[in-house]
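Co-fold these.
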Amino acid sequence: MRTEVLVIGGGATGAGVARDLSLRGIGCLLLEMGDYCHGASGGNHGLLHSGGRYAVKDPGSAIECASENAILRRIASFCIEDTGGLFVSLPCDDREFGQRFRDACRETGVRTDELTIKEALLLEPGLDPRTRECVAVQDGSIDPFVLVQANVDQARTNGGVVHNHCRVTGMTVQDRLVTQVEYLDRRDGQKHLVRPEVVVNAAGSWTPDMAAMAGVRIDMALDQGSMLVFDGRLCHHVLNRLRPPSNGDIAVPNHTSTIMGTTSRPAASYEDARVMRSDVELLMREANSLLPSSSVTRTIRTYCGVRPLLGASGGRDASRSFNILNDEAAENLLSVAGGKLTTYRLMAEKVADRVCLMLGHKGHCRTHLEELSPGPPSPLSGGIGNARLHRKHGAVSTEMGGQPSSVVCSCEQVLRSEVEHHLEGQDVLSIDDMMRRTRIGMGYCQGLDCSLTVLDMFVERRGVEAVPLLEEFLEERERGQRHASGEQLRQELMRWSLMQGVYGLGGRRR
Amino acid sequence: MRTALVVGLGAAGTFASICLAKKGWKVLAVGKGTSSCAMSTGCLDGSGMDPECLRELSRLFQASGMPLVGGIDEKRTGITNLGTRYDCTLSAPGSTWVQGHGPRSITVLGMGKHPSLRPNLVASVLRSWGMDARPQIVPMDIPGESSLTAAFRDQGHLDRLVNGIREAWGETVLLPPLFSLKDHGRLDELERRGGRRLLEAITPLGTPGERFHQVLEDGAREAGVEIWTGRRVTALRTEGDLITGADVQGGLETRTVGLDAVLLATGGPLTDGLLLHQTGLDDPFGLFLVKELGQGPHDLMLSGYAHRGGRLLSRSGTPMANAFAAGDCLAYSLRSPGKGLGDAISSAWGAVRTMEVP
Amino acid sequence: MNEGRCIKCGSCMRACPVLNDPQGKAFPGPRTVGIDAPRFPEALSIGNDALMCTMCHACEWACPSSITITRSMSMLRERLADAVPSLPGHQRMRENVRACGRTVASDFTDWRENGERTLYFPGCIGLGRLPELVRSASQLLSSMGMPHDISPRAKCCGSPLLKVGAKQEASSLQQNNLEVFSAYDSIITSCPGCTYQLREVYGIESKHLVELLPGKKYRSTVEGRWALQVPCHLKRGLDPWAAEDMAAVLVQAGVDLVRLPEEDLCCGGGGGLLSGFPDTSASMARSKVRIYREAGVRGVITACPFCALNLGREGLLVLDISQVLTVVD
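Predicted complex below.
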């Protein structure tokens, strides 16, 4: 098989590149080893940055964020909850930072508005009444799964070929060019070959591994960040702490939950990254300061994402800006790393520009002009399930309307028709693939109620082995329950009693 | 006559109430909410149970018209509504077989689209552990959230089901639970009319657990136990190291009752029998010693009230004179999944014996 | 606000009498309305189907986590009332209140304004549809040594309006009533809905007739075998002991009373279901009546005008407790 461009990595960057290239009429094949958003794109805060967070310490990133924020609101509106953001300071916070913040925002083009404490408390009754200052910014809450899927869909519509569950296993380099790439498709367990003209290595944390296959060395520092998910929306806006950037600064309302984050510590590898108890304790403390009601709110899950940062050292002070690398050992291999979810489109644009240069192609970027999944919003009546469709599926949602009573996941009000739709395509192999596309299993019961119904639908459509599929999903959900406490621990007890006690699944773990 | 206050109306509490009443105690049983027993599969692992205890339990089931089958150590197997294998030693008739005498070919029968039994899924799982199984659906329109026991009191539904059974491939038909306690005998009638061996799927969170619970509840009423549902004991009153009374709250009113002994059968953290603070367990009454064995869910299952044969200990570790406990709220040294109901019954029996000792 | 305690056991859904009724398919269920829906920004898309609930509290009583599901559903109903047009039946009810101060028009004339210190507050259904009930209750109260007024100036307690989210109307009714009540030391009701409203919303002392019965001796005025219809809002909403007290009084009076496990199953009349979803309400009443017919009782004794009305419409003989007792000196 031949292709003009092979894109490795189905996170925001890779999907963004595939979309950009296909809109320019350049043929591309994207290969993602797991499901889209397998890496950092699937383990982040879901924050559409205004840039405020970077204004002081990383102005380059701040400028990029501010401008991309506006673009994404235009082209990916259905992926974004326009919550707005607030930077608030508490009595214990550094008093001087506020002014530096405002100055830096002005210099980097990050729009701010001043609010009185009274106004702030009216907008956000959940804030600590001792809040001292409040600055409004254009933060938003963005769903990375929906965003990346929309990029994949548009790439496909414009001729791109995109496969998940395909892992690159080797590269052949001849005369300093990558001539052949071998990959393993999980669907048939077979190895396939592709001959690309250009290879874009957008593999996030695996960028060095991919580059090494072509004999190129890339230094990357992996940094992990933990997140704590609360049940319910504790705030209307994204809330940021107005203090020098540190751990546990931000709360993001996201669908039916509130995500508190984040932390920063080195990770040896993606596989080694795990949420530590100290992370959870820190995030809980910080959440309680920012939103006092969080102390009596159920936490449903913890997760961590690994940030692939370029350079040998990483951490909080490393720039969030991105880099495109090209080594003479493999001249047609472009590796891209760094960056943020908010600036993915810009990264993709720059990469696509380089690709065009390499191919001698005259195409111009259109990704800032074309809307992702344009289409009518779902009707606001006919039950919550129908009302939520647009927010999860964009224009494709018109194919998915269903009976309000056909809800298969009660926590997230997911309709049977949504699950059926996604079972028809090639992309969904597992229950957690289905989860990312429909949100089944993401609610407070973490799949206790819906996993059997969804499993039944898999068996009916695909004739798959039921128990391994279910156990795989339960294990995946359990990973986020290692630090379950309070009501979530009761929920886990319930799940254990049912899945292990009655159904005999899971065996003796832990 | 000695008065006993039993707190909790699950398996342990209700069974203990019956045993106490039969030994001549005046029993007031107070509880709220659905018990774990009513959410269980209604099957027990009876290994290690006192034969006297089993005799008493069997008597209750006999009296209800739905006798228990099995024994203390009789290895029996059933099929869950997921299609996995379920082992126990005692169950309702029609849902388990003696190991070694199981079905060879099974038709999994679904009632329309009702989620109580999903034929494709269950047949697929059955085949994965070596059973010869096929799915079949009886065309019926029963909404997902409504109960089958109400629907199958209708002769029309029953007739349609019989036809479905008659057409089934295989010698055994697996059905979801269709009958309440009083209608349970109809399963035999169904078997006769249908011409196949019938097996009721082992189903948690539904009818079998509710039936089990009802047998105990009816037995308690028969034995003269006074039952207060929808009420909770909010405090225990003490005089020195004796429990003398309890505050019982129901709706907007709280009444105080006197007692000679109290038996806590409040269930574990699932039913608020023990308070769960972040990761630590505590006694809601603030009086008794709680033994904690760890922080993960299955450690939590083992944690609970420290006790000596069902006799509770004070916070400082001294045995209480007139406070006892049974069931899930007790700490266990070993608890495997699925043993909850058997342990609840056995511990209730044990606690009542301990209560009889001065 | 303890909805965060839900462990998805489904007990509330299994206990819900609306979900178990063939005409209740459109009801999303107590877990969806009370626990899941409020977490969504699009919560109000649930629409008026969320109102297909009698507020019988069966879900709350079934919940192992003691979640106040009914209250949570109430809060969503309030939000819905501000955003979604009222059901036709509820519109009519509100119009009646605006016209005559009661949910149903009444031609009751046996008012009493004798300056007594006790007020008997029968409620709109009693005054409008069951005048016999009102007369019996009044007679019984008098023979219990409790002289009382029945005032035409005391209007609807406002509970049905609050159940459909009409806060303004409920509030002005409350204002009017509090003024009328100020002339009395005690208020006695026949309807558990009114009792709850007066106690919990108005915050004043009031007693349901059933709560005054214990302590005296009675004689039954009826023959044959009877069962109880224990009103949801009395047993599960106000006072779980009331059902036992009712039974004790009736048995002492010589009523041949059979206790059925389903005696406290909802009749389908409350929560605005009667006016908002009459088909579902009637279907639930029919199921309940079938249970009583199968038990072979002559009739049913209750303590709630909604129960009396809804079950009575399906042809069952239903009497208020005040209609079956006389005081023995």
